[in-house]
Amino acid sequence: MEQIVIDEGVCRGKPVIKGTRITVEFILELLANNWNSEEIIENYPQLKEDDVLAALQYATSILKEENIYILPKKDEVLSG
Length: 80
Prior knowledge:
Elements: E1 4-5, E2 16-17, H1 24-32, H2 37-43, H3 49-65, H4 74-79
Antiparallel strand pairs: 1-2
Helix pairs in contact: 1-3
């Protein structure tokens, strides 16, 4: 994902679209608030359709790598 960069000097190291200060998080938030890619690009003309897709792909890749650990419930620990 060449469009996503992380630089500790830009937006505190959050992943951003290359050449901008627009974070992946912000794009996801817009999408979650019912914006479509056309609206995002219209309001942030420095972005392209590929940038919005790259943000989604980046978020998906992070979630795929995430490990989930289920902790036993309090009553299971006491009875076990």
